[in-house]
Amino acid sequence: MLDALPLPAGSIRRFGGWIAFGMVLAVAIAVGAVMRVPQMVGTAVGESIGEAGFAVKRVEIKGLDRMQRLPVYAVVLDQDSMAMPLVDLDETRDRLLRFGWIKEARVSRRLPDTLVVDIVERQPTAIWQHEQKLTLIDNEGVMLEQVKLEAMPDLPLVIGRAANRQAGRLALLIDAAPALKPMLAGATWVGGRRWDLRFQSGEVLALPEGQIAAQKALVHFARMDQAAQLLGRGLVRFDMRVPGKFIVRVSREPGSVVPLIDPATNPGSPDPATTI
Asked: Are 50 and 84 in contact (CB under 8 A)?
């Protein structure tokens, strides 16, 4: 068969030898990969670089304000090897993001011996009361840390099951009526459908279901409060759940006085009458 081919027999034999060598080399590479030889070589090289002075000796943390630094140091320094080339930056970042306070993190090397950690913290916007616990949350409802009753920050209190998940919508709702924002003491997420707002003067405002309907009602209430000063007059509850109606409940305590609310101060209402 070799004599029948147009090439010299010696060339064909050399060509076959190269093919056999390539097959053996491929098998060797495959076996080495299975046995993690490349990883072992890479680790050895990385350790050698670390011994040459490129090892982690310092950690520089930026952007940390409210969260304590010690847990961050503990995560960053918990490495299989302190050699700079072998530090797993992505895995370190993923572990940092497990902290509630940390919204975003970036870990980078600064040769020869420093790891730089840039952190973006979450901003607390409310306190969530649930199952007799007080928890600081941000506008996405992420739980940041437990709050003690005697050391509560000056933030709105949101109450109810899954109320923390509605914190962002509540913030948008309050932003629609900025004049009422300083007067707000807290909010209760009722039945997983709507909000009851509680003001610092003690009154409760029942808003309708739906973000748009609740926003319109709150803006309308802010206009009425500006015109007639509804808050701080001894009233107990305002109910705006029924479209076109504004229901006011007064205290049942003896000696309570029903304040006069002029219907003319209820601009834009479909029903100018006020129910008391």
From this structure: yes
Mean model confidence pLDDT for the chain? 80
Number of DSSP helices (H) and strands (E) in the chain, helices first: 6, 12
Does the pTM exceed 0.90? no
More confident residue, 215 or 244: 215
Q: Quick one: which H or E segment has residue 213?
A: helix 211-228
Q: Are 136 and 151 in contact (CB under 8 A)?
A: no
| Backbone dihedral region for residue 8 (phi beyond 0: left; psi -120 to 50: alpha; all else: beta) | beta
CA separation (Å) from 136 to 34, 224, 239, 251? 49, 32, 29, 33
* C-alpha–C-alpha distance, residues 117 and 73, integer Å: 10
Domain residue extents for the chain:
9-47, 54-121, 124-265
> Which amino acid, residue 150?
E
**Which CATH number fits the domain 54-121, given the four candidates 3.90.226.10, 3.40.50.150, 3.10.20.310, 1.10.760.10?**
3.10.20.310
Predicted confidence (pLDDT) at residue 253 exceeds the cutoff of 90: no
- Determine the topology of domain 124-265 in CATH: Rossmann fold (3.40.50)
